[in-house]
Amino acid sequence: MHKLIFAAILTLGAALALPAGAQTQQVIAGKAPGVAGVARTIDVEATITHVDAKTREVTLKGPQGNEITVVAGPEVKNFAQLEAGQTVTLQYLESLVLELKKGGGAPVARSERGGSATAKPGEAPGAIGGREVTVVGDVVGLDPATQTVTVRGPHRTVELDVRDPEQFKLIAIGDQIEATYTEAVAVSVTPATKK
Question: Which of 24, 38, 146, 152 is 20 to 30 A from 66 in CA distance terms?
Fold first, then answer.
């Protein structure tokens, strides 16, 4: 059930925010010796334009006027509180951190964890969800001319461009790269403005 809720939240965010342009977006990047990371947050608001109680369909209008209709499954609590004119607020966070593990030794593996929660009975409708994927891979090749690092992970081998010469100098064959991808989403509903 948690994966269903999270997938629905991500679909909502992508349909309303990403193609049409988000209301606000912030990107942060940083690095330290052997570590590099980037994160972005997106905040978007949509207005409920129609609620069909029989089919549990909710039509939302995004900031650029694009509309999407989503089905609120049984995991959506307090569905009866949804009505046209209410505002749906979506907050989305996505980050990627790459960390050099000198000397290696950890198992080459992929792991994933996540969770989600919905509003309790009587509360305003809302949901949160998140997941974190970590992949550890072995450094099996280095190309100083192109500053490319070849990393063999649990399912495939990839080439990474390291555009910082100082970071590239830190990497040796036999080291490992640990990549951690995180995404989190929160959706809340606020009452319609009284006219």
Answer: 38
**Residue 16 pLDDT greater than 60, yes or no:** no
For residue 195, being part of any structural domain is answered with no
**Reduced to 3 states, what is the DSSP secondary structure of residue 34?**
coil
Tokens 């609590």 -> residue: 77
In a domain, 44, yes or no: yes
Domain region containing 11:
2-190
Tokens coding 8: 């629905």
pLDDT digits (tens, 9 = 90+) for 22-61: 467 888 889 899 999 999 988 888 889 999 999 988 888 8
Flag whether 155 is in a domain: yes
Q: Is residue 64 part of a domain?
A: yes
Instruction: Report the largest interatomic distance among the alpha carbons of the chain, rounded to a whole angstrom.
Output: 66
pLDDT tens, 163-175?
999 999 999 999 9
Backbone angles phi, psi at 99, to 5 degrees: -130, 130
Q: Where does the pLDDT of residue 10 fall: very low under 50, low under 70, confident under 90, or very high at 90 and above?
A: very low
Q: Bridge partners of 52? A: 57
pTM of the entire predicted model? 0.72
